[in-house]
Design goal:
Structural class: alpha+beta
Number of helices: 1
Number of strands: 6
Strand order of the largest sheet: 3-1-6
Helix content: 10-25%
Length: 138
């Protein structure tokens, strides 16, 4: 003969196990968001357009985050912004309102790096690799 309440004990045990498993998996790789390091990413603007805003989002998010660019990024210039480690989608918004934003998907940030921006817009004067001012042509 079965003991009364055995069914409820089994259900309660599995429920507790499931809650513990789900709670343990709620953090990305066991890491709290505040523990994810940020790295300097230097944006090299090789386009002919000035960029006024750079927005980020994690892949598969529906909305872009806030502007991470402090000042205007002129054509032929570079700017360094701190980006959290991981995969991001980038949206570069030109200052000219008639130009559409340029979006790059699946950019992986694993440490300090440079990100050349030129595809999709007309070429500009270019940026030297060390981000110094471009030399003027004679």
């Amino acid at each position: 003969m079965r003991r009364p309440g055995t069914f409820f004990q089994i259900v309660a045990g599995w429920t507790i196990l499931l809650v513990l498993l789900l709670t343990g998996c709620s953090h990305l790789s066991g890491q709290d968001q505040s523990e994810i390091p940020s790295y300097p990413v230097t944006i090299l603007n090789h386009t002919a357009l000035d960029i006024c805003q750079i927005h980020l989002s994690r892949p598969y998010q529906r909305a872009w985050g806030g502007n991470v660019l402090g000042n205007r990024l002129s054509s032929g210039a570079c700017a360094t912004v701190d980006i959290p480690a991981g995969m991001h989608d980038f949206q570069f918004v030109p200052c000219a309102e008639t130009e559409p934003p340029l979006e790059r998907y699946g950019v992986i940030v694993e440490g300090p790096t440079q990100f050349p921006l030129w595809i999709g817009y007309p070429p500009g004067q270019g940026v030297p690799a060390d981000c110094s001012q471009p030399e003027s042509l004679p």
